[in-house]
Amino acid sequence: MNSKYMQAIIKDAIFRLLFINMFLVVLGYAAAYSIGPWFIPFFSVFKQVLVFVSLVYVIKLNGFSTIYLLNKFNIYLLICVMMGLSFFSNEPFQSVYKGLTFIFPLLYIIYSVNYLLQYGAYNLLVSLSLMILIVYAFVPFSFLFFGFDIQKTNIYGYEEGRFFVSNNYGWSSTLFLLSSITVLRFYPLKRIYRLFILIFIPFVFYVLLISGNRAGLLSAGLAFIFLLFKDKIFSFMFKFTLVLLLFIAVALLSLKENSAISTIERRNEVQIESGNEGRLIGTNAMLKSFDNNPVYWFTGVGMFNYTELHKYGGILPVYHNSYWEVLFGAGIFVFIIFLKIMIYDPFRVFWNNISNYSLLAIPLIIIPFFESNLTGGQFLFFPWFSYIILLNSKEFRLYNIIKNGHEVQTYKKLVNEEIVIHNS
User: Fold this and answer.
1) 209 lies in which domain range?
2) What parts of the sequence cross the membrane (predicted)?
3) How many domains does the chain have?
4) Which pLDDT value is given to residue 257?
5) How large a percentage of the chain has pLDDT more than 90?
6) 218 found inside a domain
C-alpha cells in the first residue's frame, strides 16, 4: 500500500462526490425522522439529481470503461434483465421508477470505482474504509448528543434518539467498528484523529449492543471470529485481552433487566416457537406462489413487484431481503448471477486476499439478507455496492495468481488488459 496514492484518492473529485452521495443518504434518514415524512420527496429528488449529475461527471472522466473490473458482462446483463422485468410488474410505473433508482446509482458506482482503481485496489480499499467510517460515524455520534443516557441498556422499540432508529444505529456501529480497524492500521492519519477514533470505539460498541440489531451483532460477531483466527497482524495477547473485555461488556449488559441482550433472547424464542417472523412468513408466501406458478422460478414476478407476496399471506409490505428481491423478482438464473457478483467472487477475494486488511465484507454481505438495499436511497446501498464492486477488481485476482504461482500466460493476459498495479 502507498500512502501517497491513498491521499491522492481522497483529494480526487470522483471520490469526494461518492462521499457526498453516500453521506446524503444517511442525512436523508435523519431528516425524515427529525423533520417529518413530508420532507422525504423533496430530498429524494435532490439526491437523485445529484446522482445523475455525478454519473454524467464520472462518465466524462472515465467514459463507459470498466477495464479494471471483472464480471462486467454479468453486471450489465443483470442491469438489463432487472430493468426489463420491472415492466412486467402489476404496477409497472412504480416498479420501473424503483428500477431506475437502482440502475443509475449502480452505474455511477461502477464507473466511479473503475476510475478510482487507477490508484490501486488495496489503496482504494483503505480509502473507501475511511469514507465509510466518516459517513456512518455520524449515526452513533448523533446518538451521543441527542439520545444518550448512561442508564440505557436497550433502545430497541423505545425512544431511540432524534434522528435514527435502532437498526440504523446497529448497522452504522458495525460498519464504524470494522472500518476503524482498517483505517487505524493502514491509513496515514494524524495522531489527533487516531486518538479520536480510539476514544469513540468503546461508545460505538455500547451503541451496537443496546441497539438490539441482530444483523449488526451477527455481522460483528462473525467478523470478530475472523479477526481472532485468520488475522496475522494482531498479537495473541491483544486478541486475548480483546476477548476478555468484550465478554465482560456483554455479560454486564445481559445482567441488566430488559437489556437489549435479554430482549433479543426473548424475541428469538417467541419467533421460533410461533413462527411469526415477517421475513420468514414472506419467504413461505413467495415459495407457495412459485409452487403454484413454476414458471416464476425462471421469470420471477417482476422486479419490485409485491402483489404475489401480499396475495399469499405476506405480512410485510416488502421482502426486507435484498437477495430475495432478486430471486423472487427476476428468477433463479438472474439470482445465480447476482450471487456470483455480490457474494461468491467477493467472498473468495475476501478469504484469499483482504481478510487481513478489511472485515467490511462480512456485514456488507450479511446485512442485506435482513433488509432491502437495492435502491439508491436505501441506508446501505452505497457502501454495499461500492465495496462489493471494488472486490470485483481484476487487481485482486492478479495478486491471487502471483501468490498461487499460476501460469505466466494468465498473468500476461491480465497485464495486457492494462491493469495498473501499484507497489504496496
Assistant:
1) 3-416
2) 13-32, 38-61, 73-90, 96-117, 124-148, 168-187, 192-208, 236-255, 323-343, 350-370
3) 1
4) 72
5) 49
6) yes
